[in-house]
Amino acid sequence: MNKTIRRLFASAGALRRIMSAYSPYLGAGIRVTHIADDFGSATVEMRQRWYNTNYVGTHFGGSLYSMLDPMYMLLLMRRLGNGYIVWDKSAHIEFIRPGKGNVVAHFELTDERLDDIRAATADGEKMLPTWDVEVHDEQGQLVARVHKVLYVRRKTD
Description:
Elements: H1 3-8, H2 12-21, H3 23-28, E1 30-35, E2 41-46, H4 61-66, H5 71-80, E3 84-95, E4 103-108, H6 111-121, E5 130-137, E6 142-154
Antiparallel strand pairs: 1-2, 2-4, 3-6, 4-5, 5-6
Pfam families: DUF4442 (PF14539)
Protein name: Tetrameric acyl-CoA thioesterase
Organism: Marinobacter psychrophilus
């Protein structure tokens, strides 16, 4: 991450504000409502609007996925620091029920998980950690589940 971008994302509050103003999020009505100061957790919400509603009156599936897409990569990059390469590798979304109204997703990156990733990549090998992220509606019902796979490797330089 270059120095200018690193400064922009220096604090959790700055990252939250930048992500909420990021055009794909802004255009889909997505807001990052919380990022922990230690980058260990985050919460993302999306209100249903005319511009993120599909033909049958529910949340557009692409918007549901967009609200989940970069968060684990960003949290992991901040927690691991500049000595690691972190990329999104793949994802699979399963739509459980039609999403209507406000929906929310919560991301958790524990110290234990971080320790596992550091240990697995200590010798320069890659690791493909996975996370399952759920989207819930205002009633707490499961709307969608996403299985994320990231690519992590220590930098060799």
